[in-house]
Amino acid sequence: MEELQEPTLLQSVRAHRSEVTCVDACGARLVTGGGDRALRLWRWLSGSGWDEVARAASAHRYGVTAARWAGGGALLASGGVDGAVRVWCGRALAARRLLAAPGAAAVRALCWPGRARLLAGHDDGALCVWHVQHGQLIARLHAHEGALHAVAAPACGLLLLTACTNGVLKVFDLAEVCRSGTGGLVSPAPLTWIDNAHDLGALCADATEDGRLVATGGQDAAVRVWRAAGGLAECGPPLEGHAAAVTALRWGGGGALLASASLDRTARLWAPLASACLHVVHAHSRYLTCVMLSHDLSYLVTGSNDKTVRMWSLGSLTIDDDLETPCAALTHFALGDLEGIGPVEGDDSLEDINELVPSPGEEEGEAEGSGSRCVWRSVVHAGAINCVTTHEDLVATASSDGTARVFRWNAEAGELEALHELRAHQYPCMAADFGAAGAMLLTAGLDARACLWDVEMGVQLRSLSAPAGGGEAGEAGGGGVRGARVSTQAPPLLLLASDDGVALVWSLATQDPRPWHVYAGHSEGVTCCAWSTDGRVAATGAASGELRLSAPPPAPRLLHHEPVAHDLGVQSCDFAPAQSALDMPDETYLLATAGCDSLIKLWVIECKEAELEEQGARVRLVNSVAAHGGGASCVRWGGSAEGGALLGSAGADRWARVWLASAGGAVLRLLAAVPAAGAGGALSVALLAAPPLLLVGSLAGELAAWHLPPEPDQSDEFSDDEEATAPPFWSHIGVARWLRENITRAPGSRMSRDAEAELLQRAQDAGVTGARLLTGDVDDLLIGFGYGPELNEEEVAESKSVAEREEVRAQLRDELQWLRRPPPAPSIERAAPHWLLCPVSHRLLREPARAADGYTYERGTALDCFLAEGAVSPVSGRRLRNARLLPNYAVRAQLRLYLLQAPV
Q: Under CATH, which architecture does the 102-238 domain have?
């Protein structure tokens, strides 16, 4: 603060073709986003300033609204008007994750709460919490009625602050929000609720690195500073001085300084605790949209509606200086004990990174979706693809151009090979389904006809006409057919869904052109149909929203009628094929339905033979998920997977998604989301079992094949999903890893495996989480661990001596204090020896860990690097034999010694 000088302009660059909407810097790298859909990466060059090194011209379908670096600078997140969040490799601006929440409105705010988790605020007032490594939506909270422009995670990620354009500010327990899930069944109560926090609405928020302070700005031109401790309390009077709305805020200097940007075309630097404005920067000719303040208070960056980004020196920084301290990589090599470190393999350079992690192109469909990648795509029809169906390696499509096409997946070539083009419908072909173990294909269309085809030869076997109202065959006025299914029994039954409000059944046991049976009773057109895996139940859905379950001929009868399964209409239905994978009992089925109300619903259907005559089928709704904004158009099961069964879905929001259903359908977890090409988006989906592929048909006639991500491997004893996360997110799994690494198996530990097992079990039984490690009373935690100050008779009788107990108790107390330590002041960080800095982020280490290349990194930063660039050394670029990280106890001890001796 003493060195802070009047800001002087160092550089001005024309960053975008339209308004600059966001800016963020990490070390010597700068990212900017604009209304022109582009995301641009810049690197600081001594003597010339910011130089563009990478660009994603179509980072989002519409404008980019937010961009934030993760803590270590290996990953970068961006949000857009399209409602999607993308995670990028920070070195090359290559997409690594596409995070698309169902029905999401425009993204307005992003926040990394610690590590490995990402928060996104949306225009509809919803907050989404993402597991970045898996591309999984952990929680979705409808926090506000107004647009959610302000999101921050104060108290080191223990709390969540949200503020909206209605001026309402709320504070939640972030761990509780994460546990609430995505179904909306459990809505966490806010710890603090403040109406009119900003008159006319809040527009921005930012928390200090230590999480003790958080600032908000809004339409009232004021900046308010809050102290976060269990809840929220305002710290001093509002900071006033701007003449128009405050659009962006950013802390620097460990909370000593706050920068703000405003529509009044100025940026201001504040000393919040003194309630003083130190400098006013007349930054641009038009209003400011974003601001960034460096951690060490050496510079300020502003972005504006005038399409430029400007950099301002706040002290002695000149354009000839470096923004990062030159790093001697060998300083970070072989620190501490190298036992357990594996050698690197080969001599591959950094240029080969893309062989491990494919780098997508700039087109929307080429981006990875939650770990998925597009392996094949082609325009195969002149009209919309209304249906995609599969059997083993066979794929069939039905299109509005009146044709159906049959393909075979060539695993060696990684592409779909065209087999037949089937021309039999004068109007749009709406449905297709394989039967007889893939030997035949049933197609149906709006010309009120269904055709049966020989798949091998591509010749038509039979033609069936849907009679008017389900009457005699040959009558004029038959309604268009929307759905067509073939049952699995022999001989197969054909089921057609007709616009006349009936469903018709034919048997292939006869050549009779008339339907064997007609299911009537629907008040409007039947839009979809499906057979259960054993052919005992036929499901039909209608435009009226009703769902009917019926028994097939020769003893047809209504088993269940759901008057309003979906508001505005049922669009698709499908029975799950694998009962064993879903833990379903015999004579029980799981049905998925999709509707115009944007929902996917899962229904458990019990068809006990002894009860059918008297009471029909028992039907329970077990899950309902808001899957696609604007309407869900298609659901298709894809067989069993590890831990459940896969379900694909498509909708009007131009996304296709893959879900993992388990526990009898009660749990539905989003695995992947991929974009559909073309203006209309995704219309139909299907899943191919081997390799695991998602096939997406679009309104533009394009068929795309996406390779699905593998399930995470949890075989390693020390592996857990929380390794890269900050302590507030740890469950008992993360706490157990922390105890093993720092207590039970740390160097010098004499604890037996039996004593370790007892300690871990006590921690789990006591419900100790990472949040409790940070906030709970230390003595209470020690008692929960079984190492309280008092010994009872049982503990005296145990094998471990009193001296051992005292040693472990002291070690637990010491590690708890170390875990709770605040971030060091910038001056302490600047004075630290270079080998105590992470070689990637150039920040002081916090949890030093050794990788297989022999270098020591900050654990979370190294894991981010592996996600961004694959299993390669972040320093040398060489391939690694493994991506494991082991604690570097020697460096950790030196780090503690340095911080203990550093001046306060």
A: 7 Propeller (2.130)
